[in-house]
## 1
Amino acid sequence: MIRKLFPYTKGYRHFIVLGVLCSAGEAVLELLLPLAMSDIVNFGIETGDRAYILATGMKMIVMALLALGCGVGAAALAAKAGMGFGANLRRAEYEKVQQFSFSNIERFSTASLITRLTNDVASVQVTLMMGMRMFVRAPSMLITALVMALTISLRLSRVFLVVIPLLMVAVVLVIRKVGPYFTSLQRATDDLNLVVQENLGAIRVVKSYVREDEEKKKFAQRSNKLRTMAEQAFGFVVTFMPIMMLLMGGTITAVMWIGGHYVFEGSMLSGDLIAFFTYVSEILMSLMMVSMVMMMLTRSIACGKRIVEVLDEQPEITDAAADPVLEVADGSIRFENVNFRYHASTDAWNLEDINLTIESGMTVGILGGTGSAKTTLVSLIPRLYEATEGAVYVGGRNVKDYTMENLREACAMVLQKNTLFSGTVRDNLRWGNAEATDEEIAEACRIACADEFISAMPDGYDTYIEQGGTNVSGGQKQRLCIARAILRKPKILILDDSTSAVDTATDAKIRAALRDTLPGATKLIIAQRVTSVMDADLIIIMDDGRIDGCGTHEELLQTNAIYREVYQSQQEGVSIDG
């Protein structure tokens, strides 16, 4: 895992090296202070040499100031390196997610990906920041202090033969126990984020069905689960602290008791005992720091594995490896023996035995019941999903021959779920063409019948659209999305039930305008209303993932029972309304 995350320290490695050197310098300088203090007690005070005491005291002040400078430098460099590493890691994750197909994203879930981009990265970068200081400072102080203590008194140092093994056993036991809990803790965080995301994303539905209390209960359940997992994980950490303090207190007491006897019998100088006592404290504090960093590292490893899962995930849909086609010649479409299923583990096909030819410039209507795979069919054209078997051709070439960018530039798709982004009306429309002029924007809105309500907005095209388009109606949102697609000037325009929220008169005006202004573009219109597709050059009837029939309106009335039933039921509805 460390090998896979190390490349993301690029650009900040010199900060890491300098920070490590500062931490080492700080540790060494701090460990020299007890020796100087010992000399003052043993030689300066013992002989009454005031000049020696002052000179040694000045050295201690200088060393303390240098240690302070190294400590401040280490902290600043660690923060710089940690934040930079976190930024690189987040950027890499985000760029990888942008390459994912829909199936890749579904495998992780949106909530989990957000947690991995934020919470998990934060945990890893904090560990780097702390590790730069603690992993250098603590071992340096531990080893140096241990050597110094052994130099002062080998007999008194035997106390470490008891305390160090006990501390190591305690650390190993806690780390082995706490690791799985940290992994579960991150999963519980995913679950909580999922509840919040669903609730806020569907807040209108929640309120319209008066489901606030049920959503609160669901949130409370996930929140309590997260709390329980956190209590279990951090409970071991909290339990570890009293054990450490008990061992530290016992060691210090033993050193005072045994060392006091040595001083009393004259086999040890009082200054040496003071220095030894200081080194004991440094050794024990270093062991505590190492153990705390190891526990932080345990959680960081759990988070790092989740990050690496995203970085290692291979997008299911990729560009052609060599010599890709960079331009779509025209809007012709051909499905050749296409079968498709969303999950390889399932036996049932979502699309089965699809053979279909659509000439460039045709207007094609697609009808079918809910779940008949209409959206799935058109999603294969811009490679939002990949055909499991068979091939899809656009402009006479297999869609796999194109780069996804060039293929999707030639296709404009208005999905069932219309999405607008926070920003002005103009900003949203320019998603279709970032270089579009105001005249082109106005023309696209006229074709989509959006100009009439935009002109009534307080700031026209500069009116601010809230996140998700919550300050416009469903019909207005649909027309803005259609205008955005028109600005792309696509060779293939796919309208996936994108006029369901507008009245039939506006629907007819939009279709007529599209026919007149985009005569060369192939137009695929998925609709529930027969009137939306009855004048199409070709109408496709979908049923349970298969093509049940193809033809014009008149042909299907004569030959296709599903089309005839839908048409008659809708005509009866019109007569009743009339």
Note: The longest strand covers residues 333-340.
## 2
Amino acid sequence: MKKGAYYLKIVRIFSAIAASLALILIIAAAMFISSHSDRERNVLTSSLMTQRETMRGTLSYIRDSINRLVANEHVRTWANSEWGDTDYYYSALKIYQATREETTFQDYLDYTVSVTGQDPRAFVITSQGTLEKNALAFTPDETLMQDGVFIPGVYRTYRDNSLLLVTNRKVDDSILTFLTTFRLPEELVSGQSFTYSVYDQKRDVMIARSRDFAATAEKIKWAEDGSTTAIDGMTCFTDTYADLGISVIYSFQPPRSYSIVILTVTAAVLLIVCVIFLMYSAAKFLYRPVGRTLQEVTQDGDEVRDEFEVIVSRCRDIEQLSRDLEEALMEQKLLSEQQKYRAFLRGVPYQPGDNDATSFFTVAAVQFMSDDEELNLLFAKLDTHTKDMPHLHFVRMNFQEAALVSKADTARLSRANLLESVRQFNADLNEKVEMKCGISDTAEGYDEIARLYGRAAEILSYRYKFSNKTVLTEEDVKGESERASFPLSEFNRLITALLASSPDALTIYDSAVERNRKLSFTEHKTFSYTMINTAIRYFQDLKTTPEELLSRPVDWTALYACSDPAAAIMEVRQILASAISVRREKDELESSDLVGKMKDYINSHFRENIMLVDLAAEFNLTPKYCSQLFGELSNDNFKNYLNRLRINEACREIEKDPEVKITALGLSLGFSSANTFIRVFSKYVGITPKLFAEKIIKEKR
């Protein structure tokens, strides 16, 4: 690999960096050794303080639990009752419930509280039940009782990390004994860094983790509460609990640092060697691209004095790349045309950069009669088709409709280009996919695009009347105002009002009839067929027949064959009016009972993946009518009611077990995925299930 002045500079720079880093490592090693002992001591002290605070918390809760039990009226009644009478047993039951509450509320501290009296016959009331004194076995080798009375003090238990505390409290004229077992912090019992001892002030007994520390603890057993003592090379902390009759002594051995010195020096030497090696490798690595470049652009035997001469030549290449980038940006500029035409189509103010007001525009509104899953694919295909035609611009207007804008110098060319492009694209479509397109007239200037799109969409609205045509133009729909007019939107409003048994249904019906009164006989006949079909559709949506609902048959064939369209239309109105009246009477009788049955069904199946169609099928209704009826009767919609029911159940289960798996909980409540469950939970509760569980855990503490 060829080398020049640049290589020598890199070597000198990285040599200086390596020397500086080596000096820094030496200084850091010295500082680390000097501060290690203090740092280790602080770490041990902090860790021991954590165990100490845990122990303090446990003993504090024990003291509070005993005080609450002493203040309990049932404890006082039990203490003053004679053994065997009614108050004695009834109060014993209440004390059992109180001990259960104490241990249940503070179960994460792992302690138990039991109560008994001085009478040898007295029961021991625990959170697990009521036992006789001689049935208890707490300690492996110490005597707990004398003549049926527990001896106050601290005892080891069968569990190595637990102690038994026996204390007496005076309640009125009686003395009660409280037996409390509590777990020592795990680090104090099994950790290598700390040790502990508990001094029983009443029996003058020292319980320690080891015999050596027991001897040390004997020297400071009367130390002041909260004091810190250094003895026998150990640092000790003392906590005294006079009301419990115990002192707790914690200790740790300060670390010895001579091994750290050896390790630190060794590590420093190794790091210095590594730094030198890394700097050398880095210098070679950084120079490698330059060296390879020189190898490629020079001939064997050529002398290279300055590598930057090669860099200058490469800069010239970059200039060429910059020019190529400018061309790419020009292509990107073409994409901004999409944004411009979207603004014009929606009537949003937009200042075009070209200020071209002389071009002619034609707009097409396009829809596909296909499943929702295929719409995105079809519109993407149409977009790709238009990219090869600079005169044509594609804009997706909404989920179901897109617009095509054709721009040309003349009106004839603008319209011809659009028609040819649409027909060519339709010819390439799968035979199972049906495309409908409404094409506007042609106008000059950008300001006309919004109007042209509105007219194209209006022309497209006639697609149901021209089921055999793909492309609709102004010529196709000319004179449509003289034909029967019953738009799909008005049909949907009429069906919706009929299903709701609303009086507005007859108003909508009369309005449509009045608007279509002045028609030719043929068109009037066609309109009567439309209204008969509407009535038939109404009974189909109700999943019933005129015989079942009105108790009389309807001869639809005779209505179709009626020679007087107006009479047929009025007959249909009477049928619909009778149906609305009958259903309103039935709804008034059944509404109060139906909503209850719907809610009972949801309450029984909310853990399943039920949907509105399931509820509708259960009550023999159409989903649309079922949704409308449920909303009117319960002032809520099906989805909100179901989700609230599931989320309320989720909250109860998290409160019961905050550690429950969120994914399993969501699936057990009928949600399709954990993400759906988290999203719905956050919507109704305001926080995620995980944060809700953490909040429950904090409240329990």
Note: The chain has a mean pLDDT of 81.
## 3
Amino acid sequence: MNKKEISSGTEKAESLTRKSAATASKPAAKKTSPKKSTVKSTAKTSAPKSEKPANAKKDVKKVKKEKAVKKNKKVKKLSEKQIKRREAREQKKLEAAKIRAEKKQKRLEKKLDAKQKRLDRIAALKEARAERREKRQERRDLLKHESKEARIERRREEHAAKVEARVAKREAALADKRAKREHRLKVRAERRAERNEKRHAPGFGGWLAAVISLGVTTLALGTMLTFGWMNMNGMQADMATIHTESLYELNAIFDNLDTNLLKARVSNSKNEQVRLLSDIAVQSEMAEVVLERLPLDMSMTQNMTSFVNKMGDSAQSMLYAVANGQKLTDSQVASLEHMYRTNLQFKNAVNEITANCNEKDMLAAMKGKKDSSFYTGFDTIQNNAIETPKEIHDGPFAENIDKVTAKNLEGLTEITASRAEELAKEYFKDYKVTDVKCTGETAAEQLTVYNVTLTTDDGAMSAQISKLGGKVVEFNSYKACKDNNFSVERCIDIAEDFLEELGYDDMKAVWTSENGTTCNLNFAYEEDDVVFYSDIIKVKVCEERGIVTGMEGLSYVLNHIERDAPEASISKSEAKAKLHEGFEVETSRLCVIPVDGEEVLCYEFYGTYDEADFYIYIDAKTAEEREVFTVIGTAQGRALL
């Protein structure tokens, strides 16, 4: 091998070796290079190299910023409507939140106001009861410590007030009669003038001459055939006119009652109250009389007649109280309010009937046609068109007794008329009876009674004795009572003794009502502390003489049988929990009441709500509310529990 070849191969090998070594040494050198030298070299070379990156960064930021600005402008241009909508939504949200806050505040204020009113009402009721108790105690103290001279003077003043009331009533009646007479004369004069105008109307003579020319015979025959019918038609027209006058009179009475009741609600003067209450009492009686004259069955005016009767009784009771120097109680004020509201409804109904009724409608009603406006108007009133509350006038269930058969008389022996006279003399031996006479019989669907007249030193009396068993069904004495010598408690004792003498035992006084001279009592049968309202006897005691002057026991005779007191399935507290939250209970007891022909055991709760007295009956087995009564009319009436 020559040198050239060796050297060239060696050189190639050495060059390859150096390249590989150099290649291997470069990364190692970087790794093992110290930091100081790197920093120094960087520092030396940084000055000229740093200008370009800094400017580049600024340019990049500037470009990005410009792009962002352009982008924001585009977004703003594209979403102006959206921004407006967003602002509108935000505004609506704010308004809704404000409204919700206001409503919440109003609800809170209303709730607080209702709570305060309830507390004020409860406080007022308690204060009113305290005042009533204080007045009752003052009256008891007055009667207890009143001297004989003072009692005589007080009675003289009371008598003078009663005389004044009677005079006012009589004058009002006379004035009303005069007004009605003048009205009748005016109506007759107008009707007479109208007939004269028709009789002398133009053309009538020519028509009559033409008829005569057709033939006297034909005219005479027609006259003979139609004379009776014309008279009858004229009579019917006259009756229709009279009934129409009665309707107008009834309308005027209800208008006057509306005015007087409206004034009586706000009047605080004794003289004015006496005048207004006298007018109300008189007008109530007049309304009852006019209702009887209308060509209607009594069943169609039952609601209205019942209302005016009770209104007259209530007005008389209030009149006696005011005449005796007393102020109207809360119950009497509530009674006036009830009478005003109910009378207003009757007034509006009668006004509508009067406006729509003519002589043709009245003639149709007289013939019994049910499509006349007169008939349909009163039919609407009777079918509960007038909303009146279920009320107590003379005691719970006093007029709502189921009368089917005389249960108390079943199996008893029938007596004769002479035996009825003997029994009457025995029953009323304390009345110093001088003569007894049976005047006949009265037969009804349920029972037959003997009518007996009794003569005493104090006047005449009458009684009805049942033909089966000889029990007293009714009794009346006709001598008036003028003074108050006996308390209510004493009258109750007198009535209990009277009923025991007649053979009516285990009777409990459940209601009293007194007007200063007479005490009216309701007694109900009691068994094991349970009162049976189906077996009621009404008793009237004269507070002047201290004797029974009236008694009505038809409900007892028709319903009473021997029966055990039922047991309650719920407690009194459970029944009380069913009452209205604001109802304030004063007394309670177990009783049996008539409901749809059946006897139901109930808890009776007597109390007040919103200044009115109520009786609420809760079923003692199912806890259902069976009956609710409000005390209307007789302000002195109260339950004896």
Note: Residues 1-6, 27-51, 199-232, 385-389 have pLDDT under 50 and may be disordered.
